[in-house]
Amino acid sequence: MDRIHVVGNIPLQGKCKIQGSKNASLPILAACLLTEGTTGLYRCPRIRDVQSMFSLLQSLGCSVFRTKDAVMVDSTGALFCGDRFCSVEVTGMRSSLCLLGAMIGRFGRAVLDYPGGCVIGARPIDLHLKMLGEMGVVFSEEEGVLHACAKHLRGARLVLPFPSVGATENVILAAVAAEGDTTLIGAAREPEVTALCHFLSDCGAKIEGIGTDCLHVEGGHRLFGTDYAIPADRIVAGTYFFACIGAGGQIFLEDAPWQEMENVLAVGKAFGAKICTNHRGLYVQGPDRPKAIGTLFTDVYPGFPTDLQSMVLVTAAVAEGETRIREQIFENRFQVSEELQRMGADIRLLDEKTVLVRGTDRLTGTPVRARELRGGAALVGAGVLARGETVVGGCEFIERGYERICADYRELGVRITGA
Q1: Which residue of 42, 311, 338, 417 sits 20 to 30 Å from the alpha carbon of 106, by its own alpha carbon?
Q2: Residue ranges per domain, the chain?
Q3: Under a CB-based contact definition with an 8 Å cutoff, are residues 387 and 405 in contact?
Q4: What DSSP state is assigned to residue 2?
């Protein structure tokens, strides 16, 4: 899919089912490398990042294939690949970095190209290397290739100075295979980390403190394949949630994990939305016109997720009044502002981490281009709100995380096609 065409400016109506979580699927797929036997992962989304992880695991000798209902992974035949493997997938997807902890846990060593991904800031991997280094892993770099070796992977007492999701996941993956126990203080609390811990527990790992910022992992337990359902994607749910608030109308998001979206729902209510939740999902009714929300700060979980900042920017662009958005996680995540300005949004960069949005009556459709995943999805959302036709290019970014963005919006009454 090269471009998405959207004819917007109508209230949303209907319902759609929320896909499985991208951010939970990737570390869980990496964790399959540590198990014996076959694992069945249900609700694993059909997105580019997941397909890239399939390729990475297959290049290590794992059997990975889809059935009608699940992804089946068997790592029985996994072997260490001394050469660089699947460099296109690694450099194009930062989430491949979570294979670092899994490879060290399985093979005692790893070789990876320096991971890439969306251009939304420096996103250094220093914390990953520091934490794993304290567990006995020795790192070196040669011509952009990261080499890791752990002749004796051991548990340790670790303190994360910042609750990095990726570093937390890498420590967990290494710790379940290490000799002795690991205590991680300052761990990330994101639902995707919790899902990884629950999956590993189902496989036989012993992890205490799940869902808190202090995890205790007993190393050395044999892990076996299991059946596991990937949780629903809170970011995809939030994308459609804020689109409805900006466009008006009323929709039901089936399977939306609203229990993990407390701050997201609070922002929606501040915009003027009416919200109802039950065991089936999330209902939202958008206002005639959203009201500005004052100041919004992104933060680590349970704070407002940085992955939905771009979509809030879109909704704020048509809200009545002024909204300030302060990005506290990544330093280059306002790139979408330039494209939104071309659609008529009044957005002013106050400093590298803060924007001021003055709401306008409407946006106007125009050709725009995605530069990264979440900003790309936000441009599609802007097209839903805008008068006239919006053509979004750079859809390869959007396909990294959204399984069926066009089909989902069509179910919500939007005139949208991808080609």
Answers
A1: 42
A2: 4-19+232-418, 22-229
A3: no
A4: -
Beta-sheet strands, E only, within 224-327: 227-229, 249-254, 274-278, 281-286, 294-297, 322-326
Interval 32-49: pLDDT, tens: 999 999 999 999 999 999
351-398 tens-digit pLDDT: 989 999 999 999 999 999 999 999 999 999 999 999 999 999 999 999
Please, what sign has the CA dihedral across residues 72, 78, 80, 83? negative
- What are the residues whose beta carbons fall under 8 Å from the beta carbon of 41, sequence distance 6 or more? 25, 28, 29, 32, 70, 71, 72, 73, 228, 229, 230
Identify whether 98 is a catalytic site residue: no
Residue 249: strand, helix, or coil: strand
* Distances from the Cα of 30 to the Cα of 140, 221, 303, 341, angstroms: 22, 17, 26, 39
289/157 Cα distance (integer angstroms): 51
CATH of the structural domain 22-229, one choice from 3.65.10.10, 1.10.150.120, 3.40.50.1000, 1.10.10.10? 3.65.10.10
Which residue is catalytic, options 16, 62, 98, 118? 118
pLDDT at residue 194 is higher than 90 = yes
Point out which residues pair with 139 in neighbouring strands. 148
